[in-house]
Amino acid sequence: MKSSRPAHRCTECGYTSAKWVGRCPECQAWGSIQEVGAVGSSPLRSVSAGPVSAKARPIGQVELAGARAVPTGITEFDRVLGGGLVPGALLLVAGEPGVGKSTLLLEVAHRVAAANGPTLVVSGEESAAQVRLRAERIGALHDDLYLAAETELSAVLAHVEDVAPTLLVLDSVQTVRSPAVDGTDGGATQVRAVATALSAVARSRNMTVILVGHVTKDGAIAGPRALEHLVDVVISFDGERHSTLRLVRATKNRFGPADEIGCFEIGDGGVVGVPDPSHLFVSRRSAPVPGSCVTVTMEGSRPLLAEVQALVASSGGGGSPRRAVSGLDSQRVAMVNAVVERRGGVRLADADVFAASVGGVRILEPAADLALALAIASASKDRPVPAGLIALGEVGLSGEIRRVGGTARRLAEAARQGYTAALVPEDSGPAPKGMRLVEVADLGGAIARLW
Questions:
Q1: Which of 83, 232, 305, 429 is the 20 to 30 A CA-CA neighbour of 195?
Q2: H or E segment and range at residue 323
Q3: Is residue 52 part of a domain?
């Protein structure tokens, strides 16, 4: 038997090491390795066959009723989930403070209580009276909607035994602690223990559990990365404080697509779904202005119109020109800016360039490259892009315009919104009814066709 030695564990991912290191070799987190006590080597033990929970059956005989999604009644939320809430599933909803997570989930709990029976909302951050005031404000009162304010896991499980809900909403997982394990409240050990216990209860009772999680300063979900592996669905709730638009995305989904997006608008009456959000991302003006171009982005299976704006101004001759970006990928904007100057013949070396999206939406896909390039060229030439025109295409470093996926659906959505012309790469397919396609091979040709 070897002598006992101290062990070190990563608080982010659970990686165990015999010695302390500054950076975790598994998750690459700095300063996350902590000493957890002394351990000794134990002899190997043989494992024999034991009892099984259920006999193995041919896959064709497995029943599907337990995995059917139950709609919540909120269309935008169901779209992100892949149809609704699956019984026995564990969901994690994360977002910045004040973005509207608790309000949306309270409305979800109200809809589920009205349609499927008892629902339990456990708040570890607010009192039951505070949650009741919010429910009155958004009209989410129901006899089958139960509220509790608890911070102990044992108390939460007791409420579950008493109410027997079909849905449990825990706000938030960082505020609940388990007395059975050591660790600070909200720490990696406590969060992992709470999530593991609730996951077992959810599956044994065929109950859906929604956990609300905090986020760090860089937007990542707070707590150990193992938390994201324990849950079945991870949903991010995004939005800026000065904007009423809220975007719900599924970054992980075992029961549906992981690239769908739901659009909501927050107001005095709560969080309301926006089934056709394209008008939120496009400016409405009587006449076109320089430095603006419309494109169509794909969020999962949903095409959305988005407007890209640019402003080119003289730098005044002092220092390096400024490059500011909002709502776009700064690295991609810098690349497109260089291609516009080198391949498009637009001088930008001594000018400040500002680029932004409209409505607070983030545009990260390459399909918006052509629209961004045309917006920069339009701002530099002080000549507007013609009204009723959209631009689709990825811009390469040599100036070529490449095709993008989902072109047919993008063009169909633009035609439905009233756009009559589209600047697209070559071989983009047939044009929708009422729309004229202008195919271009490179950026220089696109700029020449417009002006």
A1: 83
A2: strand 323-326
A3: no
Sign of the dihedral defined by the CA atoms of residues 270, 272, 277, 283, in that order? negative
367-405: per-residue pLDDT in tens? 999 999 999 999 999 999 999 999 999 999 999 999 999
Q: How many domains does the chain have?
A: 3
Residue 64 belongs to a domain: no
Q: What are phi and psi of 146, to 5 degrees?
A: -105, 145
Cα separations in angstroms, 34 against 31, 76, 97, 147, 301: 8, 42, 28, 38, 44
Q: Which of 46-50, 159-163, 400-404, 444-448 has the lowest mean pLDDT?
A: 46-50
Same structural domain, 240 and 297: no
Regarding whether 284 and 265 lie in a shared domain, the answer is no
Q: Are residues 245 and 152 in the same domain?
A: yes
Beta strands in 177-232 (DSSP E): 208-213
Contact (Cβ atoms closer than 8 angstroms) between residue 213 and residue 222: yes
Do 100 and 204 belong together in one domain? yes
For 6-65, the pLDDT digits (tens) are 788 887 777 888 888 888 887 777 888 888 765 555 555 677 888 887 889 898 888 876
Contact by Cβ (8 Å): 195, 227: yes
* CATH number of the domain where residue 212 is located: 3.40.50.300
Structural domain range at position 24: 5-39
H-assigned helices in 82-140:
101-116, 128-138
261-267 vs 16-17, strand pairing mode: unpaired
Residues 112 and 242 in one domain: yes
Side chain identity, residue 158: A
d(CA 248, CA 232): 16
What is the spatial distance between Cα 373 and Cα 447, in angstroms, rounded to a whole number? 9
Binding residues: 95-102
Axis crossing angle, helix 188-205 with helix 153-163, rounded to the nearest 10: 10
Which residues make up each annotated binding site for ATP? 95-102
Same domain? 263 vs 171: yes
Rg (CA), the chain: 27
Torsions phi, psi for 67 (to 5 deg): -105, 10
Residue 325 shares a structural domain with residue 402: yes
Give dist(CA 413, CA 423) in Å, integer.
15
- Contact status, residue 180 vs residue 193, Cβ threshold 8 Å: yes
Identify the bridge partners of residue 328 per DSSP, sorted by sequence position.
Answer: 363
Do 441 and 353 belong together in one domain?
yes
Flag whether pLDDT at 166 surpasses 70.
yes
Across the strands, what pairs with 38? 6
* CA-closest candidate to residue 304, choices 250, 359, 252: 359
